[in-house]
Amino acid sequence: MPVRPALLVAAGGAAGTAARWGVAALVPVPASGWPLATTLVNLAGAFLLGALLAALPRPGPAAERARLLLGTGFCGAFTTYSALAVEVDLLLREGATAVAVLYPLLSVVGGVGCAAAGAALAGRLPRRGGR
Amino acid sequence: MSGVLLFAVVCAAGALGALARWGVDLALRRRFPAARLPWATLLVNTTGSALLGLLAGAALPGGPLAGAGVGEALHAVLGTGFCGGYTTFSTASVEVLRLGREHTTRTAAGYAAATLLLTAGAAAAGIGAGAAL
């Protein structure tokens, strides 16, 4: 593993984990049991990554560094698929079947929608770097 | 473990998880350069869900990680930190979007459904194994 890119991924990953921890500490669990904090980080992170990848300058070292720090590192660690999967199973075990079905469906469809919205929005920004 | 120290260790574990995810992606790209589907993300999300399931199962009432104390701290570091940093929902979403644009809607929907079913199945297996510890 190359050292400098690894530092970018690690720094972004630590920041993304810290931000996810912060959201989990601030967002209460609703009475329905819906995992609201995970829903929020996942949808926001999908939007951010969609926007980032569309907003990156033309391919080159700067774009690669931004992708590793903010994309692979921050957005990758800010969002979580393992929490989604485990929460679905725990909801099923608790008998909260409706939430256990709606939560993953809304997350997955909403995640793709948020990524598309982020990409569309960033695609409208004026570009730097002469593209 | 104090709150600040635990927070720092969780963030460091998240950084390790992100590095492990990146390493899996690089290794699979090198080994299978012609792959059409994002297998690395699927592999990372499935194995990370199994590990988080194992921790969650062990944290159920009566399990070895149940209650406050060391078990709770270990759950935070390995689960919230490592598994959270290792698995990714944002990349999975962007890849579904890209599959829909570059391949077919059917391929994209299939990848999304396979990810959800495999991760939920791996998590359930992990919870069962963790509860039996």
From TrEMBL, chain A:
Q: Kindly list the positions annotated as binding Na(+).
A: 76, 79
List the catalytic activities from the record: fluoride(in) = fluoride(out)
Query: Per its Swiss-Prot or TrEMBL record, what regulates the activity?
Result: Na(+) is not transported, but it plays an essential structural role and its presence is essential for fluoride channel function.
Pfam families linked to this entry: CRCB (PF02537)
Q: What is this entry's stated membrane topology?
A: Multi-pass membrane protein
Keyword line: Cell membrane, Ion channel, Ion transport, Membrane, Metal-binding, Sodium, Transmembrane, Transmembrane helix, Transport
Listed transmembrane segments: 34-56, 68-86, 98-122
Which domain of life does the UniProt lineage start with?
Bacteria
> What coarse category fits the chief subcellular location reported for this protein?
membrane
**Protein localization:** Cell membrane
- What family does the Swiss-Prot or TrEMBL record give for this protein? Belongs to the fluoride channel Fluc/FEX (TC 1.A.43) family.
Q: What does this protein do?
A: Fluoride-specific ion channel. Important for reducing fluoride concentration in the cell, thus reducing its toxicity.
The protein, known as: Fluoride-specific ion channel FluC
Organism whose genome encodes this protein: Kineococcus glutinatus
Q: Top-down, what is the taxonomic lineage of the species of origin?
A: Bacteria, Bacillati, Actinomycetota, Actinomycetes, Kineosporiales
UniProtKB/TrEMBL annotation, chain B:
InterPro entries, per database record: FluC
Tell me what organism the protein belongs to.
Kineococcus glutinatus
What is the documented function of this protein?
A: Fluoride-specific ion channel. Important for reducing fluoride concentration in the cell, thus reducing its toxicity.
Spell out the reaction equation it catalyses: fluoride(in) = fluoride(out)
Q: How is its activity regulated?
A: Na(+) is not transported, but it plays an essential structural role and its presence is essential for fluoride channel function.
* Annotated TM spans: 36-60, 108-132
Name of the gene: fluC
- Major site of localization recorded for this protein: membrane
Residues annotated for Na(+) binding in this entry: 84, 87
Q: Which HAMAP family does this chain map to? A: FluC
The keyword Metal-binding is assigned to this record: yes
Q: Does the keyword Magnesium belong to this entry?
A: no
Highest taxon above the source species: Bacteria
Give the way it sits in the membrane: Multi-pass membrane protein
Question: A Pfam family in this protein?
Answer: CRCB
Q: Tell me the compartments it is located in.
A: Cell membrane
According to the UniProt entry, the coiled-coil residues are none
Record's keyword terms, sorted? Cell membrane, Ion channel, Ion transport, Membrane, Metal-binding, Sodium, Transmembrane, Transmembrane helix, Transport
- Similarity section: Belongs to the fluoride channel Fluc/FEX (TC 1.A.43) family.
Entry protein name:
Fluoride-specific ion channel FluC
